[in-house]
Specification:
There is one protein chain. By secondary structure, the chain is of the alpha+beta class. Among the domains are: about 90 residues, 2-Layer Sandwich (Alpha-Beta Plaits); about 80 residues, Alpha-Beta Plaits (2-Layer Sandwich). The chain contains 10 helices and 20 strands. A 4-stranded antiparallel beta sheet has the order 1-2-5-6. The longest helix has 8 residues.
């Protein structure tokens, strides 16, 4: 985290979070004093060097806050007297968002695995297995020879056998037992009796309720992976920009620079050619900054930024659109 602060009739502070930055360059493209510049973002993304993806020239920066308002991903924050411009009524507001409907969510966890930013956290409460199974199991100690065949084949690891010269015992953990009958069928002495009555009483067993909580963190970049992968359509995503990304495949040299830098996992190399998936692209433009062939073009037609009242700011922000 780096910041610039100046005190006067009001205290202005500009903060930059390198961990959140996507290296898209939107802030630099909109800066009216050209005080922002991207560093060696590809080297940083590949782990070859350490450093900030963005450099801020403190001598020329006037701390106007335009860059913070232009950044859709929250890497820059502008404060006036301790209040973030995001909370001030006369500053622009981004309206893109991601949300998951708790009522529709089945808490399967697929979104947490797919999220390229690890921005989704969830916990769930599963029903007690004993509430879903009904049955009985018994073992005749006089017939059992403690051969352990039942324990070795038990799919639930519910049987424990002790067979020593000094003592022999067999125990069944009925919290684990699923009354499948494998132990009964393998027992050479027919010492085991099992009865699974789940099917017979299926009407009496209520459908299990899986409950939980799911949370999307501030590091979400609204890429849409959660929405696309959700099997019950519980996720909704509004991206920061409308538009398209176009490429010329014949010019691609397969260097992988765009793949390594893309924070959305929206680009893959196939047959040494970069392929782009529009479903996951947020049109940030980071890939265009590192393509050595300059074969990638991002065209933004609209942005989810409202309350831009300043004419000069509006002109600067409209440069981000095509």
């Amino acid at each position: 985290m780096i910041f610039i602060q100046r005190d006067g009739s009001e205290t202005r502070k500009l903060s930059y979070d390198n961990n959140v930055c996507l290296a898209c360059g939107i802030c630099a493209d909109s800066c009216p004093t050209s005080s922002l510049a991207l560093g060696d973002v590809l080297g940083i993304a590949r782990g070859q060097i350490d450093g900030n993806k963005l450099a801020i020239d403190e001598d020329t920066c006037v701390i106007c806050g335009l860059c913070a308002s232009a950044c859709p991903f929250g890497a820059l924050d502008f404060e006036i007297d301790g209040s973030s411009s995001k909370d001030l009524a006369n500053y622009p507001t981004w309206t893109h968002e991601s949300a998951i409907d708790d009522e529709a969510c089945e808490f399967c966890g697929r979104c947490t695995v797919a999220c390229p930013q690890d921005a989704i956290l969830f916990k769930r409460e599963l029903p007690d297995r004993n509430d879903l199974l009904k049955g009985e199991i018994s073992i005749n100690d006089e017939e059992c020879i403690y051969c352990s065949a039942c324990a070795e084949l038990c799919p639930a690891d519910a049987i424990t056998v002790v067979n020593t010269p000094d003592a022999c015992s067999i125990e069944v953990d009925e919290d684990k037992c699923v009354y499948c009958g494998v132990c009964k069928r393998v027992c050479p002495q027919e010492a085991i009796r099992t009865v699974c009555v789940t099917c017979m009483h299926s009407d009496e067993i209520e459908k299990p309720a899986i409950t939980g909580d799911i949370f999307i963190g501030s590091d979400c970049i609204n890429c849409g992976w959660c929405k696309e992968i959700c099997p019950v359509d519980a996720a909704e995503v509004t991206k920061p920009f409308d538009g398209e990304i176009t490429t010329t495949e014949e010019d691609c040299v397969g260097c992988g620079s765009c793949v390594d830098l893309c924070a959305c996992n929206a680009i893959v190399l196939e047959d040494n050619v970069a392929k782009f998936n529009d479903e996951y692209c947020v049109l940030c433009g980071a890939c265009t900054k590192v393509c050595p062939q300059e074969r990638i073009v991002v065209k933004r037609t609209d942005m989810k930024l409202t309350n831009v009242s300043s004419a000069s700011w509006k002109a600067a922000l409209e440069k981000l659109l095509d």
